[in-house]
Specification:
Order of helices and strands: HHHHHHHHHHHHHHHHH
Strand content: under 5%
Structural class: mainly alpha
Distance between the termini: 25 Å
Largest sheet: none
Length: about 375
């Protein structure tokens, strides 16, 4: 346990660590070419340091209300230990996992295992896709805007998205890939949206059409957004836990407050970068287009219900793919002259937004 760190400053030091890592990456990228052995050596060292730090620092955090949902899961864990089990209606994969762990380990070790399930799949995805450049991808995941929140608060959702990404890592084995995505849905049923979107975009592949739909739904949501929220509320979409997002009886930092232009602008950065790679730089990679189309569909769904409470949780069903959309082409093809420097700049700018939102603006 990192009990010596004030719990209210716990996330602050996480971002300070990554600020140092990103500065090293930025400097290294400007000193060496992408294939330089020294550059690759430094990158791998930073990658493994980041991997072990993230697992240990996040996995050994104290059980505290600062991490919100963590205390709820600790309470459920104790109920299972006391033979007073929680009634399971949905997300049964996670709750059966929680019940199993309660019989053989401490609650502290349970949360450590949760972090392993959250972080290690991202390492496997990065390693399988990018080989010696894996650290760029892995660190991009770790410095994403919502990464910390979904490892310490939205734990079920975070693990589910990581299993989805693990499914992408094994995409050449269709049965294993789809099985991992379905397993992700048992941890958090909202993963049905990206799973269905991924399957749909396997059959209909026109990125131009998906981009057009994304643009069209923005004015539709501005005009008819309340109607879509009400329609989903009446339809009884999802579980009671999902349904609470459509009520007013909640209190959170991201509670619905009208049309979220800030979230939309953030989402649009991935749309712009994907459009740039595919249409301006002619990056013709089947997998990349597949992921980009999946992102567009999931983001369209969120835009339509952008005014709901906890809007960030619906946005995360597309946001968790943003790191892939930003970095994948740069590690797969020659996009720019002095590409390593461009990668370093991209990673730096990507992190600066996260640092701004999670450190500077909350002070």
């Amino acid at each position: 346990m990192f009990d010596f760190i004030p719990v209210n400053d716990y996330s602050y030091y996480y971002y300070q660590f990554y600020l140092i890592v990103i500065l090293f990456i930025f400097i290294n990228s400007y000193l060496h070419n992408l294939n330089n052995k020294k550059s690759i050596g430094v990158l791998n060292l930073l990658g493994y340091i980041s991997l072990f730090f993230t697992i240990l620092y996040m996995g050994l955090r104290p059980i505290n209300g600062v991490f919100i949902d963590m205390t709820m899961y600790a309470y459920m864990f104790e109920r299972f230990q006391d033979n007073d089990p929680v009634i399971i209606y949905d997300d049964f994969g996670f709750y059966y996992f929680l019940e199993f762990c309660s019989k053989i380990m401490t609650v502290e070790f349970f949360f450590f295992i949760c972090v392993l399930l959250y972080v290690v799949p991202l390492y496997f995805f990065s390693k399988r896709n990018f080989k010696k450049y894996w650290a760029y991808s892995f660190i991009m995941f770790c410095i994403s805007f919502s990464f910390w929140a979904y490892g310490t608060n939205g734990i079920r959702n975070g693990i589910a998205t990581s299993f989805f990404i693990l499914g992408l890592a094994y995409r050449k084995n269709k049965y294993l890939s789809f099985g991992l995505m379905l397993f992700a849905c048992t941890f958090h049923q909202t993963l049905l949206l990206p799973t269905i979107a991924y399957l749909l975009t396997n059959f209909y592949k026109s990125t131009k059409v998906y981009l057009l739909i994304w643009l069209i739904v923005i004015p539709i949501s501005i005009i008819l957004g309340n109607y879509f929220v009400k329609l989903i509320e009446i339809s009884g979409f999802g579980s009671d836990k999902v349904g609470v997002y459509f009520t007013d009886e909640v209190n959170e930092e991201f509670v619905g407050s009208g049309f979220r232009w800030d979230f939309l602008i953030y989402s649009a950065t991935a749309v712009i970068i994907g459009w740039f790679y595919i249409f301006k730089r002619n990056f013709n990679d089947v997998f990349y287009k597949h992921i980009f189309n999946t992102y567009l569909i999931c983001n369209v769904f969120w835009i339509l219900i952008i005014k709901v409470n906890f809007s960030n949780r619906f946005a995360y069903l597309s946001w968790f793919l943003m790191a892939i959309i930003f970095i994948y082409p740069l590690l797969k093809d020659k996009i720019f002259k002095f590409q390593n420097a461009r990668i370093g700049l991209l990673v730096f700018l990507y992190f600066i937004f996260t640092y701004l939102m999670n450190v500077i603006l909350i002070k």
